[in-house]
Each structure stands twice: as C-alpha cells, then as structure tokens.
Amino acid sequence: MMNRQERIQDILQAKFTPVVLDIEDQSHKHASHAARDGLEPGETHYKVMMVSAALAGQSRLARQRAVNEALELEFKTGLHALSLVLRTPDEVKG
C-alpha cells in the first residue's frame, strides 16, 4: 500500500508530467495543531515544488487550483495543507 506522499507523486506525475517534482512531508512541523484540529498524526502537510510545461499560461491561483483539484481525494482523506511552488520550465530558465 502506498503512503500519501507516493500517491501525491503518482497523481501529479500523471496529471502534469513534470520535469521536476519534489515533495517534502512537513507534517512533523504541524503535529501540535494537527492534534488540536482532530487530524491523525503524520501525512497531513506537504511542500510541493513542481516544474511543468502544463502550467504555462496559467495564473498562480489557477495553478494552485489545478493541483488542489488533482489531489481532491487526498484532501478528503486527511491531507490538510500544501505549500506549493509551481513553475514552468521557461520560468526556471529565466
């Protein structure tokens, strides 16, 4: 069975075909408020850095919405927050 980080990676790979995809579990930094908010410990907070041509022509907000929509099931099953850095290959070069 895959953990949440592996599922996020698979979903984003399939949807955006990124040239760079770095996913960092930051749940340990939020353990105190996760428990307070009634969330299960771990696998709740992630930082995602993704470079994909599929993001070209989209505003920052549209990019974030696209990622959040792709991960809708993960949000419904315990994912609480994402920190997103979303770029196109041209933005990384320049």
**CATH architecture heading:** 2-Layer Sandwich
Shape: globular
Structural class: alpha+beta
- What is the helix fraction of residues, given as a range? 40-55%
> What order do the strands of the largest sheet run in, or round the barrel if closed?
1-2-3
Number of domains: 1
Along the chain, the helix and strand elements come as HEHEHHEH
SS field, number of helical segments = 5
By CATH, the superfamily comes out as BolA-like
Report the CATH topology name.
Answer: GMP Synthetase, Chain A, domain 3
Largest sheet: 3 strands, mixed
Proportion of residues in β-strands = 15-25%
Instruction: Tell me the Rg in angstroms.
Output: 14 Å
What does this molecule look like?
There is one protein chain. The protein is an alpha+beta fold. The protein has one domain: BolA-like (GMP Synthetase, Chain A, domain 3, 2-Layer Sandwich). It is built from 5 helices and 3 strands; from the N terminus they run αβαβααβα. It has helices spanning 4-16, 31-36, 60-70, 72-76, 89-93, and strands at 20-25, 45-51, 81-87.
